[in-house]
């Protein structure tokens, strides 16, 4: 189908062919008409002449016959004979002698008729011709007058003789011989004898006179003929069809020629169209096959030139747009320079191209990257002189003078030949790079070239500034603005690299202890200054390859190489960190000794992913901090277990109250002298479906952190009151219950109301309840805790100071506190009796309590010796495993009595 379409002349072809045909057929038709006309005219003239000739010949023949007939008559007359009878072969049909002297008439009837006609007619003298028209043929009579006599010879000319052959070959028309009076003497066979009134159109007419006056003394005869025009002559000749054939042949020839010409024209056009279509389909390699040496060849050549230009241009655009893409993707500058050089190389085959990065972002010298026509490529930093020249060259912002200093400088870089350059100024007006193209034989100063290099230069500039910007952003994204150390993202990146490298390393967390105090006392700028100093100390203290990061706050994270080449073992590094951060910080004239808690995990021993390692190092650091700070701790599995426990506790504790999982155990407090249990301390436990009876030591700290302690504390308070009331109703010997308060509860403004509500609800007087608080709760308080406790105390509630001796133990404030009871911490009781410092401290505590008139209770009494010592010191009440462990509410009434009995000292 394609082939048939290829052979079809196409619309334009058909049009051209039609125009050819039209152009040719018009003159052909005119020519045909003219030729036909002239041919016809000629033919008609010929016919006319032939007709005239024919009748002229007939006329002559008739004249000759008349003359012959006259001669024969004269001969007859000369013989003087009486024409008795017609001689054989006579030219006449009747002869008669008109002799007035003769008596007898001729015997023959014809002769007598003739004579009779003659005598009635006028008789002119001499020989004369007479005729009598009538019917088909006229009677022609010759009359010969004999001189000297009055005789006339009369002879009727034989019509067969006279008219033989006349008009014989005449057919298809009319012909007659007429006399002056238009009487027909003889007509062609079938011709009407009467003359046509009007000569008919389309007929040829000819007429020839036969002059008889001179010879025969008679009026002239006229030979007349008319014949249809061309009817006979042209009918034979196929004149019309001939002309038509000629015209047809001409047109055929024109058609063939025009088709050939159309083909000659259309083929290159068609090729051009096909190639144009391919170009339109972005097949830029398409070229027209050239043939012939006419304008079509020139057109093809121009077209091919254009396609080549387009190909180059498109390639250029592709590369530029791919550069743009890479700029947008913030690909690194080196890669972009590579691309730009590649493009330059393609744009200028045979040239050496170079890009000088004038303003190298990374503090280095200006860099030069180049690529030569020979395929070489490279990059160097360039010396200062060349750099200055190139910078000047870039500053000039113009095309290079071939012999100017910048050109020489460029030549020193190996850019030979005519060197052109274009500065590449960044968007910020800063010169980023110079693009240089060196080639001896390129028309580099052509505007198109300048535009190309210009465009490229601008892109290189944008690329470089984008890359610099990206670097800057990257740096900002991965580095801490305050210390210049890596931030969290930077640390993550470094960790990824280290993990990917599979090299062993230690991940170390160092957290400044008490940093908050700096911020609180001197403000954040001071804290920032201290952090900067700390950062610098860390950098100085650790091997240079150590990655030091500050993910946030006062926490530093170190990535320490622990491979065979490591300069510092993790333990040593941790100590070094601890030591350098433990030194005095002087900020705004103030001295701070903070110390740091350091914890670390090891890769791969403690984990092989960033999260695990980070979490474990953090756990270790947290443990170090928990342990009091200013110490180092390596991660171990126990930390993880503790953390896991904490996790489920934190998760499930908020629901423990609602689910009824909490229970209160009661530990009796025994009178040191009587051994009777007056009261008991309420101690909460968590009956966990999976973990069993969970000690408050495990969950109270978490409860305090999460705030769950409020609900727990409220519940314990109510439960203890309820239980006490129940016991008292049941007659159990118990005076009072002690309930531990948490700092959060004490800070709660509703505490007083809650306590009073609990007492009211269970119908207890205030004196039935004792609340245990710790020193720290009173010290950190802004006065509200003390106020609440004072109100409670006014309501009769007793206040005990729990765990005394472990806190600040500031004597000055104790006197002002609303206290009734002081509980000596277990730690002192444990160490009692060995004559060590605990003995004297305990003695001092006892003295203090006595001086403040507080009731003194000792906790954690486990041995009789401890009990004896405490009793001797003057303790009022004792509490501990020696008497009873914390007991469930069911066990308490019975067990407490037993314990009390057992506690009564012997004697
Ligand atoms: P705490 O107030 O000092 O309670 C006394 C702790 O000492 C109890 O531990 C008790 O079982 C234990 N203990 C008593 N006698 C001895 C002894 O002879 N030897 C030893 N080694 N220990 C003894 P427990 O019940 O595990 O309670 C731990 C801590 O949990 C309590 O210390 C208290 O601070 C807190 N706690 C317990 N219940 C509550 C509560 O309802 N509210 C609040 N806020 N804290 C509570
Ligand atoms: Ca307590
Ligand atoms: Ca205690």
What does this molecule look like?
The protein is of the alpha+beta class and 907 residues long. The chain contains 29 helices and 29 strands. The strands form six sheets. It has an eight-stranded mixed beta barrel, surrounded by five helices. A five-stranded antiparallel β-sheet has the order 11-10-9-13-12, sandwiched between helices. Strands 15-16-14-19-20 form a five-stranded mixed β-sheet, sandwiched between helices. A hairpin with a 6-residue loop joins strand 2 (128-132) and strand 3. The two termini are 132 Å apart. Ligand C2E binds at residues 667, 682-684, 695-697, 700, 713, 716, 740-742, 772, 802-803, 826, 859-862, 879-881, 886.
What's the quick description here?
By secondary structure, this protein is of the alpha+beta class. The chain has 29 helices and 29 strands. Strands 21-22-24-25-26-27-28-29 form an 8-stranded mixed barrel, surrounded by 5 helices. It has a 5-stranded antiparallel β-sheet with strand order 11-10-9-13-12, with helices on both faces. A 5-stranded mixed β-sheet has the order 15-16-14-19-20, with helices on both faces.
């Amino acid at each position: 189908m394609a082939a048939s379409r290829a052979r079809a002349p196409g619309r334009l072809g058909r049009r051209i062919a039609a125009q050819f045909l039209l152009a040719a057929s018009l003159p052909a038709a005119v020519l045909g008409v003219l030729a036909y006309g002239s041919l016809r005219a000629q033919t008609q003239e010929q016919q006319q002449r032939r007709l005239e000739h024919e009748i002229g010949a007939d006329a002559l023949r008739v004249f000759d016959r008349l003359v012959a007939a006259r001669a024969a008559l004269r001969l007859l007359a000369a013989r003087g004979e009486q024409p008795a009878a017609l001689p054989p072969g006579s030219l006449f049909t009747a002869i008669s002698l008109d002799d007035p002297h003769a008596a007898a008439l001729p015997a023959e009837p014809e002769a007598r008729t003739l004579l009779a006609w003659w005598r009635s007619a006028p008789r002119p003298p001499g020989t004369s011709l007479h005729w009598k028209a009538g019917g088909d043929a006229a009677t022609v009579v010759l009359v010969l007058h004999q001189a000297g006599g009055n005789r006339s010879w009369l002879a009727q000319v034989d019509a067969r003789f006279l008219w033989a052959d006349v008009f014989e070959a005449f057919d298809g028309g009319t012909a007659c011989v007429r006399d002056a009076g238009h009487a027909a003497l003889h007509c062609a066979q079938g011709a009407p004898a009467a003359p046509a009134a009007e000569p008919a159109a389309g007929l040829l007419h000819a007429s020839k006179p036969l002059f008889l006056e001179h010879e025969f003394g008679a009026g002239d005869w006229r030979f007349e003929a008319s014949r249809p025009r061309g009817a006979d002559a042209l009918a034979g000749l196929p004149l019309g069809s001939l002309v038509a054939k000629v015209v047809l042949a001409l047109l055929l020839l024109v058609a063939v020629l025009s088709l050939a010409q159309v083909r000659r024209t259309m083929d290159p056009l068609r090729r051009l169209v096909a190639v144009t279509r391919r170009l339109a389909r972005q097949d830029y390699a398409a070229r027209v096959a050239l043939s012939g040496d006419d304008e079509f060849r020139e057109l093809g050549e121009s077209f091919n030139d254009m396609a080549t230009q387009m190909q180059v241009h498109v390639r250029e655009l592709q590369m530029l747009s791919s550069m743009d893409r890479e700029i947008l993707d913030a690909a690194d500058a080196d890669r972009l320079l590579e691309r730009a050089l590649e493009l330059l190389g393609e744009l200028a085959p045979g040239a050496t191209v170079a890009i000088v990065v004038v303003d190298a972002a990374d503090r280095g010298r200006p860099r030069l990257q180049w690529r030569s026509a020979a395929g070489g490529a490279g990059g160097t930093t360039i010396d200062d002189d060349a750099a200055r020249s190139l910078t000047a060259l870039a500053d000039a912002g113009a095309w290079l003078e071939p012999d100017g200093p910048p050109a020489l400088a460029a030549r020193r870089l190996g850019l030979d030949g005519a060197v052109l350059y274009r500065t590449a100024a960044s968007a910020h007006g800063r010169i980023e790079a110079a693009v240089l193209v060196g080639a001896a034989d390129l028309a580099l100063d052509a505007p198109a070239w300048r535009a190309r290099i210009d465009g490229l230069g601008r892109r290189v500039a944008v690329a470089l500034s984008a890359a610099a910007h990206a670097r800057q952003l990257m740096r900002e994204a991965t580095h801490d603005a305050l210390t210049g150390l890596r931030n969290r993202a930077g640390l993550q990146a470094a960790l990824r690299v280290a993990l990917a490298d599979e090299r062993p390393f230690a991940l170390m967390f160092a957290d400044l202890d008490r940093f908050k105090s700096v911020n609180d006392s001197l403000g954040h700028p001071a804290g920032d200054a201290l952090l900067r100093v700390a950062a610098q100390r860390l950098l100085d203290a650790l091997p240079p390859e150590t990655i030091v990061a500050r993910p946030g706050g006062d926490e530093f994270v170190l990535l320490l190489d622990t491979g065979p080449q490591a300069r510092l073992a993790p333990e040593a590094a941790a100590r070094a960190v601890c030591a350098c951060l433990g030194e005095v910080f002087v900020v705004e004239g103030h001295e701070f000794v903070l110390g740091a808690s350091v914890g670390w995990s090891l890769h791969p021993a403690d984990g092989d992913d960033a999260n695990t390692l980070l979490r474990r190092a953090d756990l270790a650091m947290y443990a170090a901090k928990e342990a009091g700070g200013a110490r180092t701790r390596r991660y171990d599995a126990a930390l993880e277990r503790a953390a896991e426990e904490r996790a489920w506790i934190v998760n499930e504790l908020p629901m423990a109250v609602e689910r009824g999982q909490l229970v209160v155990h009661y530990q009796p407090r025994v009178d040191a002298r009587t051994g009777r249990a007056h009261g008991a301390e309420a101690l909460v436990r968590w009956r966990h479906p999976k973990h069993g009876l969970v000690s408050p030591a495990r969950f109270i700290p978490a409860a305090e952190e999460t705030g769950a302690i409020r609900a727990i504390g409220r519940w314990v308070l109510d439960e203890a009151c309820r239980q006490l009331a129940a016991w008292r109703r049941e007659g159990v010997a118990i005076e009072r219950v002690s309930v531990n308060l948490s700092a959060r509860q004490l800070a709660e403004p509703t505490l007083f109301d809650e306590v009073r509500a609990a007492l009211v609800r269970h119908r207890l007087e205030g004196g039935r309840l004792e609340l245990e608080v710790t020193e720290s709760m009173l010290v950190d308080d802004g006065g509200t805790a003390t106020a609440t406790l004072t109100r409670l105390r006014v309501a009769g509630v007793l206040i005990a100071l729990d765990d005394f001796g472990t806190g600040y133990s500031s004597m000055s404030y104790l006197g002002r506190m609303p206290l009734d009871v002081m509980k000596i911490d277990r730690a002192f009781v444990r160490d009692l009796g060995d004559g060590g410092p605990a003995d004297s401290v305990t003695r001092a505590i006892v003295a203090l309590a006595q001086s403040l008139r507080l009731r003194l209770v000792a906790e954690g009494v486990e041995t009789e010796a401890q009990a004896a010592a405490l009793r001797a010191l003057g303790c009022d009440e004792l509490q501990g495993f020696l008497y009873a462990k914390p007991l469930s509410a069911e066990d308490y009434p019975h067990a407490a009595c037993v314990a009390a009995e057992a506690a009564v000292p012997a004697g």
